[in-house]
């Protein structure tokens, strides 16, 4: 039950992520309406960063859930009770909200006096920062630091969980038990690798290296491909 509860939250995030960005992209392509208001751009970036931040934390929580299921199977139902699962899920959404609030305020309190053309199919941090006529190095440093602490903490929890999981699996003498354990965490590990690979390639770099064409291609991966593949991965890996 805890695994499917967290999968429900992941499914909601996978619905929200393309809804925030792809609908506006389709409007631009099909209706040739490429305008977006300042408020609309702000809200789009806010909800996008909230979804991405929440998903990073949720994947860490899901890794911890898999750790308890494999390393402490007899205590799993007691440790991962409904109340703890609800608190963990609520905590991921709340931290994602606060993280997004900070990032959005840092970006949209800049002075924009040059072009108003966002060279991307949605409002994101790198293309919006590129429009500022003021130096953005200080704010970029704060954004990278906060994102690094949040993402780094989630990554440490995920990595630590899988180190313990791998150790537990290798100590199993029965090949059937090892196969079952690998099957239990294989789908989550695939989703983690897919998500971290695309988000790191998009955000973990200075805006001076911003390349509109390349970033549009990379952002397509985690905005469209990742939400599309997540349910496929879990469907194939679960009976």
UniProtKB/TrEMBL annotation:
Gene Ontology CC: one annotated term: plasma membrane
Main location group: membrane
Pfam families the record matches: 7tm_4
Alphabetical list of PROSITE patterns matching this protein: G_PROTEIN_RECEP_F1_1, G_PROTEIN_RECEP_F1_2
Segments passing through the bilayer: 43-64, 84-102, 141-169, 181-204, 216-236
UniProt-recorded Gene Ontology molecular function terms: G protein-coupled receptor activity; olfactory receptor activity
Bilayer topology annotation: Multi-pass membrane protein
Family: Belongs to the G-protein coupled receptor 1 family.
Protein name from the UniProt record: Olfactory receptor
UniProt organism field: Ceyx cyanopectus (Indigo-banded kingfisher)
Lineage: Eukaryota, Metazoa, Chordata, Craniata, Vertebrata
């Amino acid at each position: 039950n805890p695994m499917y509860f967290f999968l429900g939250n992941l499914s909601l995030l996978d619905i929200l992520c393309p809804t925030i960005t792809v609908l506006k992209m389709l409007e631009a392509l099909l209706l040739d309406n490429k305008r977006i208001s300042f408020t609309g751009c702000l809200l789009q970036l806010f909800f996008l960063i909230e979804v991405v931040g929440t998903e990073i934390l949720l994947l860490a929580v899901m890794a911890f859930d898999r750790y308890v299921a494999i390393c402490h199977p007899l205590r799993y139902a007691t440790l991962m009770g409904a109340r703890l699962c609800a608190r963990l899920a609520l905590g991921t959404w709340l931290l994602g909200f606060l993280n997004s609030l900070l990032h959005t305020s840092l970006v949209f309190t800049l002075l924009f006096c040059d072009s108003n053309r966002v060279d991307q199919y949605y409002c994101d941090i790198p293309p919006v920062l590129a429009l500022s006529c003021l130096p953005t190095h200080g704010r970029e440093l704060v954004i990278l630091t906060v994102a690094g602490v949040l993402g780094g903490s989630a990554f440490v929890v995920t990595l630590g969980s899988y180190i313990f999981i791998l150790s537990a699996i290798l100590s199993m003498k029965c090949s059937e038990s090892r196969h079952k354990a690998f099957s239990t965490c294989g789908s989550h590990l695939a989703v983690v690798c897919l998500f971290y690979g695309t988000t790191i390639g998009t955000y973990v770099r200075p805006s001076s290296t911003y390349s509109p064409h390349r970033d549009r291609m990379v952002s397509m991966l985690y905005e469209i491909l990742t939400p599309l593949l997540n349910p496929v991965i879990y469907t194939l890996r679960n009976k």
